[in-house]
Amino acid sequence: MPTNTSAKGLYAAIFSSLLSSLGIVIQAEAIKLLGPLTVCAGASLFGSLILLTLLFLRGEYPDLALLRRHLASLISLTILRGVVGALLFVYALSLTPSIKAMFFTKAEPYLVIFWSWLLGRGGIARREGVLLVLHIAAAVVLSTSGRLSFERAQLGDLLILLALACSSLSYIVGKSVTQAIGAKLTNALTQLFSAVLLLPAAIYLAPPGAWNFVSLGWAYLWLQVLMFNIIALTLWFYAIKTIDGWIVSALRAVGPLAAAPFAWYLFDQSLTPLQLAAGGVVLATSAAIARQHIISKAKVTL
Question: Which of these, 6, 35, 57, 104, is most buried using a 10 Å CB contact count?
Fold first, then answer.
């Protein structure tokens, strides 16, 4: 039976996935109007400021000695997830439709397992290898719609996979620091560090009018900040603090179930029947890998 804390971690992972997938759709619309770099830096800046303000209003002040001990992990997490991973992802969204991108993000569980294997933290079973082959084949069909070509959208899909390689490694780095200083503070500080690194280039390279805070693009960006940077990311950090990273990653398969209809209804995005079938296989293999790990872990603990 799961403990109360682990049950909360599972719920946090599920709701984080739902909000993240919805955030991808909203983020893509902001990128069209503001540009990728403005969206990346702006979301980190205002997400961190709002979170830090909420923490200080609640009297939750950081322990500076504790922060110094975990500064290297915070910087690594910032670089992996907040800078390199985030930049790759926003530029990918400028090239490929968000309704397709949200399915591609579900390759993350396999990359989490890959990093665990590479760093000597676990292996890949034969069944997981079969699921991985099916997952990759479905992802190729989802990207190309069955046509063998490499176009603008396929470049975006490739950038998504590179972004996922960074974010999946951050599960290993993020767990220890989140357990030490808490989910909300970890989220706030990594976003603040990201904003400091990204903001000079974002201001210098911004298209005309990009930093007009009352424009439609910023309305989308404010919504993304609320849904993703504040709520979804905090839930993600809480989830990896309380349950295994591969479970958190695998549970992200539920996100497109809510976000795909949202993208279709509000922004007229769609997939071909073949792509929808491939997307279903992507979600099914992600869910199967979670089930396989749960069964394997249960056998170990008996």
Answer: 104
Block residue for tokens 């989140």: 178
Alpha-carbon span 224 to 23, nearest angstrom: 5
Tokens of 180: 């030490």
Q: Which two tokens stand for residue 98?
A: 């968000």
Query: Mapping DSSP to helix (H, G, I), strand (E, B) and coil, where does residue 271 land?
Result: coil
- Per-residue DSSP letters for 114-152? HHHHHTTS----HHHHHHHHHHHHHHHHHHHTT-----H
| Contact yes or no for 99/40 (Cβ under 8 A) | no
pLDDT tens for 60-108 read: 888 888 889 989 889 999 999 899 999 999 999 888 887 777 777 767 7
* 158 contacts 95 by C-beta, under 8 angstroms: no
Element housing 61 (H / E) = none
> 224 and 26 in contact (C-beta within 8 Å)?
yes
For residues 10 and 243, the answer to whether their CB atoms sit within 8 Å is yes
